[in-house]
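Researcher: Structure for this, please.
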Amino acid sequence: MSAEQLSRAKEPPPGLDRVDRSILRLLQQDGRASIRSVAERVHVSRANAYARISRMVDDGVIRGFTARVDHERAGQGASAYITLKIVQNSWRTVRDQLLELPGVAHIALVGGEFDVLLLVHTADNRALRELVLGRIQSIPQVLGTQTLLVFEERDRVPPD
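Model: Predicted structure, token format:
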């Protein structure tokens, strides 16, 4: 990240207008959409669409472009949400250790009965067991876990 991007990342970006939100919705539906296609669908010039997308990337509104994966077809047949109770004020330490683990898709610090919510994808239940019992529960700041198996999952794509 450049110094300018780091500086911008610390301050909230200016509000998004209707066209920006339309562009975001289109890119969430198809991150591979061409600038030309996006511009035509939101009724702006290609230069305008390009400038808006670049600004949203620079401002950190768009964090990247990725593929939506069918985890089961990709050989990750077991998915789970794992809740963690952690030692107070250890979030950054725990987060950094969790980010190093295989299969971690999402980490959130939350309020409520538990402190951290983690989404993981593993090859099978044996790998999930090893991840939870062998890796996550061995982190000293983790006081307890609860594993919620995912039976079926679907990503929500914003409507047109």
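Researcher: Any notable elements?
Model: The helical segments are 3-10, 18-29, 35-42, 46-58, 91-99, 125-136. The first strand starts at residue 78 and ends at 86.
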